[in-house]
Amino acid sequence: MRPVVSNHADEVMRDDLVTEPRRFLAEYNFHLGTLSTPITVQIYLHLRTGNVVFEQSHFLKVPKKGAYFTDAKHGEKQVENLRIAKNTFTKFYREAVNEGYQPEEDWLVRNEDFI
Question: How many domains are there within the chain?
Fold first, then answer.
């Protein structure tokens, strides 16, 4: 597959010893419902594939379910990635609250791979 590069600075990363090159695009921070722990979503452009990907600082673990990890870690655009990440949290938070659970800080599980 031909590397995707969008500016001259990205050309610097074209080297056979450089793997998985990404360029940081944006960072978003928010709080979920009544939880006080901030959540961070970082969005990157993968320079080899052209995919826009995201990483999140936390995962959500609500009662009676395991920690929720989104299956879709990328979309075609920055806004699509932000929507996927945000919806991961809000959907399961709302479901748990609607089932009568009170939100707890331990619902947010730190993503140990998040930089």
Answer: 1
